[in-house]
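Please produce the structure of this protein holding fe (ii) ion.
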Amino acid sequence: MATSAEYGLGPQAFPRGWFIVAESSELDQGPMAVRYFGQDFALYRGESGTPVMLDAYCAHMGTHLTAGRSAMIVRNGQQIEGDSIRCPYHAWRYGPDGHVNDIPYHDGPCPKSASIRSYPVRDVMGCVMMWFDPEGGEPEFEPPFVKEWDDPQYVRWQLDHLGVINIHTLEVLDNMADARHLGPTHGAPCEYFENEMRNHVVIQRQGGHIQIYDAHLHSVTWYTGMGILLSKQNFGGTLIFELIANTPVEDGVTKAWHAALVRGQNVPPSEEDIVIAKASQASALEAFATDFEIWKTKRSALKVMQLKNDGPFNTVRKWAGQFYMPREEAKARQQELNGMHLMKDFPRPDSKWQEEGFEDGLFSGQ
Ligand code: FES
Ligand SMILES: [Fe+2]
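Below is the modeled complex.
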């Protein structure tokens, strides 16, 4: 395990951006105590359905707002009122903005100094995503979204929860540049490969013959910030979208999720479509698990010993650095890197993929 500072990413230990913090269906079960970015948070769904994320600890005496289930106020179902939450110790009530808006035994205004921080959160594609910003700023862009999520022909995913690994998020992101692992690791050596950078989005386009399906694979994969990868893949005519999400838990420790969105034959999808979609997600997971196994057991690569015919690891790592520096400085980094990054050994994708509208509507959230 190595830290952001050891990789030389920037002055901040944790990156700015949108990150998955829970699956929406988990939050439906009740308030959650979660830990990311080296901090504890209280996460709950208000009665309006809106997810709310607050600093975990009550200003009164430091009680974790959502860690316990045994206080009577929780057991009686009285903890959530509207979109506010009451502390299980003395029932101070916090609004979704983090301000105390009721103290049951106190006359007069609630103390302003009791406020705790509230974080922007959204429900997107069955995931609860938070905007994290070490500078405390509002979101600079929207979370990524695949419009097919709302297409009734697609079978919506449920997340694979891959747990916590002792590896820095950066080493997961290295995959974006890694043309040379596609053959040895995945049995799908690329015949063409390119990267493109558009501000906070990094794109990879690649394709070639994939051994396990005996078909041509074309994929367009993009990270929106450091946390959320989406990939549109055509396996000899079959279309799927894949999600890989990675959120820092501590500096150098990462929690990961995976999912696939698969087009069915029927509207709405039949039982058989659902079975096929689940099987597709499972085989996509199997491919990803190969990367995962390597990450779990490798030592940290603080520097990549990059050959000139390796993928552009250092450029992608430089792109990642923008999220570890103040946002004003990040602009210059974006401008420096925006555009195409090509490898000498590989041609660019055939233009037919663009002509067929393969990328229409992708890279939302810009
Ligand atoms: S510790 Fe939260 S209300 Fe007292
Ligand atoms: Fe990979």
